[in-house]
Hints:
five-stranded mixed sheet
Amino acid sequence: MTTKKPATIAATNGVAQWDRYGAIVPPLQLSSTYAFEGYDKTSGYDYSRSANPNRDLLAETLAKLEEGAGAVVTASGMAAVDLALSQLGQGDTVVAPHDCYGGTYRLLAERARRGDFRVAFVDQGDVAALKAALKGAALLFLETPSNPLMRVTDIRRACDLAHRAGAKVIVDNTFLSPALQRPLTLGADFVVHSTTKFINGHSDVVGGAVIAAREDDLAPLIAWANTTGTIGAPFDAYMTLRGLRTLFVRIAQQERNAAAVAGFLRAQPQVKAVHYPGLPDDPAHALAASQQSGFGAMLSFELEGGIPAVQAFVAAIRIFTLAESLGGVESLVAHPATMTHAAMGAEARAAAGIGDGLLRLSVGLEDADDLLDDLRRAFAAIA
């Protein structure tokens, strides 16, 4: 049988296979418990915290797309990150990016404060600093492209350095999804997602997932998710798979819109910098092109004028919506310093390069001309 292409897997995995009546769409299985076939004999399902058909199908589809051994579907993206970190013990060190998503930074800092493990926040673009931090470390956490500055980490090199030091590697692939990047094929041991974002793509479900490269790393995650109950709900899994069906066509159009927006922003005198690896002169362009199959729909830019300019800008927009989250069909703008990265604190944000004039865009499926007109309106307001 010919191996299916990723877009085909996303669109058809599980279709016309999960229902005795021949339903094309896999049915929603809301039952919390399942009948035993006899004494000490189950059908494979006994209690929905341990296993559920909708959650299992979503996990299977994600594992196929990421080319992993299997996946665990969780209640949120942060639950996925926390599950991936559950393999660490007291005394272990995780090396994390100094410019990661604010929620991830908060989780790592709080876990370290409680003594669950140690954390070293490092500029992972500095190879010497990364090598030094990895000495004695148990885990390397990568986020590429980074949120919100779109910095790209060389996954192959980072995995090689980590494995030489005896550490495993987790990559947060939320910004690109398996449609545009597959970190397990580049050497990573685990991939985490906030499936809330591009994988679901409609801003109506919260969820997460961890995909493991090997079976022996997958089994402890499955067991711990069952023990703690950090699993995703059946309806959420059903809705996420529904969104996943259109991932490839959505992200292709969103990327085209993002390229148009990035080019427009570069020409604005009020913009100090645009962070989008799809721009040919972006510092990360060549590296991104070597390990990604596209540049995605996320970008950020720095406004002259700081907070007053940001306030005028977000008050003038009509099509972009001021909101957190990303990856939906609608375009969003966020102010990281007061929204997604507020938990980092001013000193940590300054070290990461997240200034008060920085705005992050999640570019959606609207007509590109309408998006550019909306931006023109906002720039006119701060001219």
